[in-house]
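Q: What would this complex look like in 3D?
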Amino acid sequence: MKFGVVRFPGSCDDVDALQAALRVGDAVMLWHAERGLHGVDAVIVPGGFSYGDYLRAGAIARFAPVMEAVSEFAREGGLVLGICNGFQVLCEAGMLPGALLPNPSLRFVFRQVSLEVVHADSPFTRACEPGQRLSIPVKHTAGRFYAPDDQLDALEASGQVLLRYTPGHNPNGSLREIAGVCNEERNVFGLMPHPEHAVDPLGGSVDGLRVFESMRAHADDRVLA
Amino acid sequence: MTASSPSRHRRLGLTDDEYDRILERLGRAPGDVELAMLSLMWSEHCAYKHSRKLLRRLPTAGAHVLMGPGENAGAVDVGSGLALAFKVESHNHPSAVEPFQGAATGVGGILRDVFAVGARPIAVLDSLRFGEPGASERSRWLLERAVAGIGHYGNSVGVPTVGGEIYFEPSYEQNCLVNAMCLGLAPRERLIRSAAAGPGNVLVLLGALTGRDGIGGASVLASAELGEGDEAKRPSVQIGDPFAEKKLLECCLELLERDLLVSLQDLGAAGLTSAASEMASKGGVGLDVDVARVPLREPGMEPFEVMVSESQERMLCVLAPERLPEVLEVCARWETLATPIGRVTDGERLRVLAGERVVGELPVSVLVDDCPLYDLSPTAPKDGLYGAPDRVLSGVESDGEVLLALLRSVNLASRRRVFEQYDPIVQSRTIRRPDEADAAVLTLPDGSALAVSIDGNGRRVACEPRRGAAEAVFECAANLACVGAEPLGLTNCLNFGNPEKAHVAWQLTEAVEGLAGACEALGVPVVGGNVSLYNEGPGGPILPTPVVGMVGRLSDAARAGRLGFARAGDAVALVGPFTGSRVGSELAKLSGEAPAGSLPALPARAVAEAHRAVREGVRAGWFRSAHDISEGGFAVAVAECCVAGGVGARVAVPDEVSLFGEAPGRGFIVSGDEAALAGHQIIGRVGGDRLVIDGRLEVAVSELRSARENGLDEALSARC
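A: Here is my prediction, written as structure tokens for the whole assembly.
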């Protein structure tokens, strides 16, 4: 199992994502200006401030050469995980539904939050139980998940909402407490919380490892199949 | 070269005597470009002319020291082949004029200081001072914007903000303080110095375009008192671009990793002038700088403007000519501009060229070494310098009410509102975040960990500068002890008023003496720092505020201590020679008492022994919690242990200990199995959902938490 972590200028949690992925498999960096994915089994678009994010978060990164390859990879069924800025990039690229608006406070917020696993039947949550609580930190300025009502209904009906903030833990006014959604095909997943920052027992919670373990298990199954 | 008109030197901040000295040293009148450069290099900010002699008093040697004062940042050995570089620096005056950019570029500047020595910045801490937020809309604005600026820069660059401190006092109303500290890690052999070397080598400017921002920042802003019309100085404040910094940082670290550079220096105060002078001076060489080759943000800039611009996100490096193509390739990959702008020369002169034309030529020694150093004329003031604060407590409150008032007070209330705006965990090293322990703790690859704390209570220094400054050192060391860390070194930022005034000179002299004594007593060397003088407005000087940042190491990250009570049934003990006094305390402030009087004794040997006992108790796992007794005294310390642990306690206050008296750095509240606390003074037990101090007070933990959590919000939502 080889993860590839995209590195844009301005990525901040790229090394963190690489280290987290290395806990469950192999991992390499993917440079933003190159189109090759070096035969990885899954792509992580990490957190940070790609290209400074002085425009709208993720709006420039979606045009990076590497994103063409990531998009193609996803169309062929490859696993793509977008964390925080990565989630914003995937939404901007149209690979995930909805949009991430500025927090109502208009401030950056860092907080350890509690999440509920809504569906455990995805490649990103299969190592969890439905209804399981995960303690994972958030840190962002634009994390308010938004989509029109009918689209939200559809997302819920089709089981694409994989993670919600538990009551009282929504840090950013996300509609319907949505913390993470996947695409219809369930191979592209974005979330605002940072699972790569909940993997070290010395730092407290290791609940974020479940996401990486899920991806690993999915990849292993594909190899066996 | 045109000769400068004689009155011009005064507008640039040079005295007549200083100008005469320049004439004498040069044997001629300086040209315009030269005078602009000299006025900055001879400013207080760059030359430390009122503090350099005093600073010689600070001990700088130690077994772990790899680089001491004089480099961009100091560095200590943290084992396993790694060096830890660190430094604290002020950005007070820019922040008082424009808090968002002032604070943001303060962070940017200290980050560059650290990666200029080849270390990857791994943590930032901030020490902030403002006027009373409840009484002043300006103070609320300064706080909110400075915090937003720090977050904007630190978060975007991907360096965690792991700790800090904030105090609110009336004397900071006009002149807020924004001190930022940065820590960086490097393989020991990759530390690089700033000395230029090798005549014929190329001088390359890296990073942002040079513009007209920050012209005169060091002389106009940082070396004179604030006053009316400061809005007009806003153009002297630089504008930060954290994205440019992030690329510059990664670029420089890659250049060093590939061993392509001879030396590296950041551009801070006085821009190219200072960077080039320092590099030449340290290397004993000369430099030619061609301003016509410097990429500009706007056309038509004068040579002197190019030489003194403080545009951010720039570095200067020296490299062998044959390395240039590879350097340019790395810079292109990181989308970082790299421009050869000059070369290293024989002889010790800094020549400024504008194409073919020589527009300035000065001996490096005149720029760097010849500024006069002044002796201070310290005189202890007869009366207190600072007025009495507004009275909050009437004196008839119960002990429980006083405790809640202290927890709610702006100096003691939770800083959650602030630290939630910072990313404390990026880079995946942080294992103790704000509110979890008395010091931040960051893991190292070998299973050990670093700890860091920053502290400085101006009110106590105002009472008694020598002992108050010493307390800041002991307080930091106490914070480190609570996580199990042993101090390795410290950095300090001396924030004071106008040193030409006798009473400020006295505060400064005494405080340095106090710092030096404390460092000697604890065996902690000073590896670098910064001095910020002229912090005064129309209302007088700020409280004398030496800020101390201390780093330490613990051998086993898994044993890092926490401050909160951990388990019901654990015994609680008081460790250390703590009694506490009302002088300079938060209780005195809330009671409307001016900061004055003698601070309690500081028995250095007994205190150091207490630090050792706590450190060893934490390291051995005997203490499940450890917290030092600082602002608010005994009762507040126990209450903080309850709130952090989400559990109550019942304790007795020993006869000699005053409930709210303060004596920072000397005493600790620890908890653990009763057997593990043997030999310490056991005062009670953890348990229940209330804090009971026998015969004195009984308050629900939820009430303590609510007071502490909401105190700052309440003050900031006040409307006058």
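A: To summarize the key features: The interface with chain A takes residues 148, 151-152, 155-158, 241-244, 246-247, 250, 334-335, 419-428, 430-431, 443, 557-558, 560 of chain B (CB under 8 Å). DSSP finds 23 helices and 28 strands in chain B.
Q: Very helpful, thank you.
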